[in-house]
Automatic annotation (TrEMBL):
It is found in: Cell membrane. Its EC number is 2.5.1.141. Carbon 2 of the heme B porphyrin ring is defined according to the Fischer nomenclature. The keyword Transcription does not apply. GO terms for biological process: heme O biosynthetic process. Converts heme B (protoheme IX) to heme O by substitution of the vinyl group on carbon 2 of heme B porphyrin ring with a hydroxyethyl farnesyl side group. This is Protoheme IX farnesyltransferase. Keywords: Cell membrane, Heme biosynthesis, Membrane, Transferase, Transmembrane, Transmembrane helix. Interacts with CtaA. It is an enzyme of class 2 (transferase). Pathway: Porphyrin-containing compound metabolism; heme O biosynthesis; heme O from protoheme: step 1/1. It is a multi-pass membrane protein. The gene is ctaB. GO terms for cellular component: plasma membrane.
Length: 311
């Protein structure tokens, strides 16, 4: 077990503000996760009552937040060491490990139960599996053991669009599976670009990120490799019934931009990157966020267009 739960807080419990509990849920990262879930739900065929859609997306958001709190509970010891994370509520002592654990478990149970009752138990089971995968498989098991941690663990971040789709339809289909594959293949370049410029942090915390275990060159190769593998997945999603010309145009432009940006990162070495303070690596990280947001944004536009034209 991580010693996160054993560590004493640096300041007295009870000093936490609402903002600290909010931060525990990793709201910024989860915003994009929740957006992909919303699009999964909106792109699904058939009518979903707006209230049911709202409750379903809320449950996925709360489930995501729960898994964030469980991650912060378990990882408090390594978060305390890294510059980027040491101000988080648990390592800084504003929220105790026990509180984070209790909040994580309560919100996880609550979100799964409500989704099951409101939508269906297949969606609820998938949400429970997603929370389990992030909190247990990624955080507790893989993160400290293998540089492939985020490749396998990325499945947790990839499943929400499928949870949204299943909440709406009660069944699986090819389109949401391709959405999952898109986020799954996107996660490695998203994260490794960041790892190239916050590298020292992971070394300090002794987390075996690829940058630490295999160095910059291998990481740069992997970033470009995954960016290229993303192209057929992105285009294949464009051939399913949920996509149309808006998506296809966005897909072509975004893939050209993303592969181009990853190519620029690939062809240089650490010395060149240090010389311009990792400008190209920062660009890939920022572009990764735009890439995913606009892919799902285009699918949402197609779904809204379909509803509008069908009305
Ligand atoms: C195992 C998978 C992933 C890892 C290891 C990872 C890691 C990270 C890290 C370390 C950051 C830095 C900033 C922070 O801590 O807030 C970050 C930022 C971010 N990630 Fe990921 N990420 C993963 C998957 C995802 C997924 C699936 C999404 C959404 C679909 C996502 C969306 C974001 C967003 C929106 C930010 C920017 C947050 C901000 O503006 O501060 N990430 N990610
Ligand atoms: C609906 C649901 C249950 C969603 C879970 C989705 C999920 C897995 C989201 C992204 C994961 C994420 C924030 C990884 C950060 O890695 P890290 O925790 O190693 O990063 P850190 O160093 O910033 O803590």
């Amino acid at each position: 077990m991580s010693d996160a739960s054993l560590s004493a807080p640096l300041s007295a419990p009870g000093e936490a503000q609402m903002g600290d509990y909010w931060e525990l849920l990793k709201p910024r990262v989860m915003s994009l996760v929740v957006f992909t879930a919303l699009v999964g739900l909106a792109a699904a065929p058939g009518e979903v009552h707006p209230f049911l859609a709202f409750v379903s997306v809320l449950c996925i958001a709360v489930g995501g937040g729960a898994s964030g709190a469980l991650n912060m509970w378990w990882d408090a010891d390594i978060d305390a060491v890294m510059k980027r994370t040491k101000g988080r509520p648990v390592p800084s002592g504003r929220v105790t490990g026990d509180e984070a654990l209790a909040i994580g478990l309560a919100l996880a149970g609550f979100s799964v139960m409500i989704l099951g009752l409101a939508a269906n138990w297949l969606a609820a089971g998938l949400l429970a599996f997603t929370i389990f995968f992030y909190a247990v498989v990624y955080t507790m098991w893989l993160k400290r053991r293998t540089p492939q941690n985020i490749v396998i663990g990325g499945l947790a971040g990839a499943l929400p669009p499928l949870v949204g789709w299943v909440a709406a339809t009660g069944s699986f289909a090819l389109a949401p599976v391709l959405m999952v594959l898109l986020v799954f293949m996107w996660t490695p370049p998203h994260f490794w670009a960041l790892a190239l410029f916050v590298r020292g942090d992971y070394g300090l915390a002794q987390v075996p990120m690829l940058t630490e275990t295999h160095g910059d060159r291998v990481t740069r190769n992997h970033i470009l490799g995954y960016a290229i593998l993303l192209v057929p997945v992105s285009l294949a999603l464009g051939l399913t019934p949920v996509a149309g010309p808006v998506y296809l145009a966005a897909s072509v432009v975004l893939n050209l931009l993303f592969v181009g940006a990853c190519w620029r990162v690939w062809r240089r070495d650490r010395a060149a990157a240090e010389a311009d303070r990792f400008a190209a690596e920062r660009r890939v990280f920022k572009l990764s966020l735009l890439y995913l947001f606009l892919h799902f944004g285009a699918l949402l536009a197609e779904a809204s267009l379909g509803t509008f034209l069908g009305a």
